[in-house]
Write a structure and sequence with these properties.
The protein is mainly α.
Length: 205
């Protein structure tokens, strides 16, 4: 088993354990035992529970970036990237939903996930052709994170096979972000060019 295969297996085991016993029971050794994996190798690749979540987030980002079409407007591209990320979460839905349940009771974990997701939003923005560096980039990342969280709340309740409720929520949030950016983008070009508007910091939904 390669390191990549081992990481995937341990992540699967961690999310399965989280779904069964709650995320407060999840740790690298517990996930390794749950999945029948080598403890020494788990220790080397995953020094803490946060490393499991960080790797999971990076894999979700990589899946979205690798499968995005790159077509359409900025808003279309962001919609596509966000939904591809939800598609990745869908494969471990019970474990992800269990993780969401524990966050209100574990502020350090919630804060760590916020920082991880901010980094992810930067990658999605760059993939959509929007600069994510500097002060404006930081605002854009926070705005897109708000869009992501709005969609996440819908995804948590969405039992449809095609995630139609999640798609509707993401589209609504992106439209609101675009409208906000249009209002606060100086110059006449922004009022007639959504491409310009979406490159300004989006709203916190």
């Amino acid at each position: 088993m390669t390191d990549q295969e081992f990481e995937a297996a341990l992540i699967d085991a961690a999310f399965a354990l989280g779904a069964e016993a709650g995320w407060l029971s999840v740790s690298p050794p517990a996930a390794a035992r749950h999945g029948g994996l080598d403890l020494a190798r788990a220790r080397f690749l995953f020094p803490c529970t946060g490393a499991i979540l960080k790797k999971f987030g990076r894999l979700a980002d990589a899946s979205a970036l690798a499968n995005a079409s790159g077509a359409g407007s900025v808003r279309d591209r962001l919609f596509d990237l966000i939904m591809l990320r939800f598609d990745y979460l869908q494969s471990r839905r019970p474990g992800v939903r269990a993780l969401l349940r524990v966050l209100p009771f574990c502020p350090p974990l919630a804060l760590a996930l916020t920082e991880m997701n901010l980094a992810s939003m930067g990658w999605l923005l760059e993939a959509a052709g929007v600069e994510a560096g500097g002060i404006k980039g930081a605002l854009r990342k926070r705005g897109l994170l708000a869009v992501w969280l709005y969609g996440l709340r819908a995804w948590d309740k969405d039992e449809s096979a095609d995630l139609s409720a999640t798609m509707a929520a993401v589209d609504k949030a992106l439209v609101r972000a675009e409208r906000f950016a249009l209002r606060f983008t100086p110059g006449p070009s922004a009022a007639t060019n959504p491409e310009v508007a979406m490159q300004e910091p989006p709203a916190v939904v």
